[in-house]
Amino acid sequence: MAYPMQLGFQDATSPIMEELLHFHDHTLMIVFLISSLVLYIISLMLTTKLTHTSTMDAQEVETIWTILPAIILILIALPSLRILYMMDEINNPSLTVKTMGHQWYWSYEYTDYEDLSFDSYMIPTSELKPGELRLLEVDNRVVLPMEMTIRMLVSSEDVLHSWAVPSLGLKTDAIPGRLNQTTLMSTRPGLYYGQ
């Protein structure tokens, strides 16, 4: 659950979100090192005289500043591609839930069971009880099992929507006439808010 003035991500509750957090830290460290190096070089240029005249003709320097960024991009791209394939992989789901976006609510249907569907409306601000969160509380929550692979089929009836649960690392667009799918697996019990 996010809290006011939070600077980082929400706590990870799925293996995919844990991988995304590790990738974020990995990439942030690379960006920090590059920024530090650039700041150091700029400060050197401002404080010292550049008297070395053969620097402009050095083929070694040009080779280094061509190959080094390519290596850095590979160090970022390979983990990113691995996570993209992990997010798209579906391994024998135990449960399938169909999610349909409507203008002001979501409809959920447990497709593995007959006649198990419901609508989920946001609770108006005037009807909230103490401790409930504005624009996040709903009248019917989706209940899902823990430590099981679940396939979510997401689509829309009318306009574009976005179905997201940040602590699970999920965000899928609901597009009319198109069926998108994503998988989730929660590693611990709890109440996870989405939008």
TrEMBL record:
<keyword id="KW-0496">Mitochondrion</keyword>
<feature type="domain" description="Cytochrome oxidase subunit II copper A binding">
    <location>
        <begin position="92"/>
        <end position="195"/>
    </location>
</feature>
<feature type="transmembrane region" description="Helical">
    <location>
        <begin position="66"/>
        <end position="85"/>
    </location>
</feature>
<keyword id="KW-0812">Transmembrane</keyword>
<dbReference type="InterPro" id="IPR008972">
    <property type="entry name" value="Cupredoxin"/>
</dbReference>
<dbReference type="GO" id="GO:0042773">
    <property type="term" value="P:ATP synthesis coupled electron transport"/>
</dbReference>
<protein>
    <recommendedName>
        <fullName>Cytochrome c oxidase subunit 2</fullName>
    </recommendedName>
</protein>
<keyword id="KW-0460">Magnesium</keyword>
<keyword id="KW-0813">Transport</keyword>
<comment type="similarity">
    <text>Belongs to the cytochrome c oxidase subunit 2 family.</text>
</comment>
<keyword id="KW-0249">Electron transport</keyword>
<keyword id="KW-0186">Copper</keyword>
<keyword id="KW-1278">Translocase</keyword>
<comment type="function">
    <text>Component of the cytochrome c oxidase, the last enzyme in the mitochondrial electron transport chain which drives oxidative phosphorylation. The respiratory chain contains 3 multisubunit complexes succinate dehydrogenase (complex II, CII), ubiquinol-cytochrome c oxidoreductase (cytochrome b-c1 complex, complex III, CIII) and cytochrome c oxidase (complex IV, CIV), that cooperate to transfer electrons derived from NADH and succinate to molecular oxygen, creating an electrochemical gradient over the inner membrane that drives transmembrane transport and the ATP synthase.</text>
</comment>
<feature type="transmembrane region" description="Helical">
    <location>
        <begin position="27"/>
        <end position="46"/>
    </location>
</feature>
<keyword id="KW-0479">Metal-binding</keyword>
<keyword id="KW-0472">Membrane</keyword>
<dbReference type="InterPro" id="IPR036257">
    <property type="entry name" value="Cyt_c_oxidase_su2_TM_sf"/>
</dbReference>
<dbReference type="Pfam" id="PF02790">
    <property type="entry name" value="COX2_TM"/>
</dbReference>
<dbReference type="InterPro" id="IPR011759">
    <property type="entry name" value="Cyt_c_oxidase_su2_TM_dom"/>
</dbReference>
<feature type="domain" description="Cytochrome oxidase subunit II transmembrane region profile">
    <location>
        <begin position="1"/>
        <end position="91"/>
    </location>
</feature>
<dbReference type="InterPro" id="IPR045187">
    <property type="entry name" value="CcO_II"/>
</dbReference>
<dbReference type="GO" id="GO:0004129">
    <property type="term" value="F:cytochrome-c oxidase activity"/>
</dbReference>
<dbReference type="InterPro" id="IPR002429">
    <property type="entry name" value="CcO_II-like_C"/>
</dbReference>
<dbReference type="InterPro" id="IPR034210">
    <property type="entry name" value="CcO_II_C"/>
</dbReference>
<dbReference type="Pfam" id="PF00116">
    <property type="entry name" value="COX2"/>
</dbReference>
<keyword id="KW-1133">Transmembrane helix</keyword>
<keyword id="KW-0679">Respiratory chain</keyword>
<dbReference type="GO" id="GO:0005743">
    <property type="term" value="C:mitochondrial inner membrane"/>
</dbReference>
<dbReference type="GO" id="GO:0005507">
    <property type="term" value="F:copper ion binding"/>
</dbReference>
<keyword id="KW-0999">Mitochondrion inner membrane</keyword>
